[in-house]
Amino acid sequence: MSDYGERIAALADRARRDVEAFEPPESPPDEVTALSYAREGVGPTVALYIDARTGPGSPVAFDRAEFALLERALNDWLELYAACYGIEMDATFTIREAAEALLDTHNIDETAALLTGVDAGRC
Predict the structure, then answer these.
(1) Cα–Cα distances in angstroms (integers) from residue 26 to residues 3, 15, 17, 29, 32, in the given order
(2) Does the global pTM surpass 0.70?
(3) How far apart, in whole angstroms, are the C-alpha atoms of residue 111 and residue 105?
(4) Domain spans of the chain?
């Protein structure tokens, strides 16, 4: 387990709780909730990965279980983000894809919209 194991487990637990507690909006979009999933879920998850890969010292080597938890948390929050716009999806993004999208956009809201295909401006 890497030094990030506990943080990854906490993110995964929070994502699971968010999935279990989620109730789809009666009349989408629910932009406020979608943005909270992006900013409080997707953002910290991607930031942890970027920090582990680019922080001081050698890049962190996650074990398979950590990678699986990290990507499951990311995809859970992206699915919830999309669901807030009335879009059902089975997200299968890699954490690297999300990190690259964030580095391209410099904005976690745009990153979530880009990955999910949600055009938040048109909803």
Answers:
(1) 41, 22, 21, 9, 14
(2) yes
(3) 6
(4) 5-117
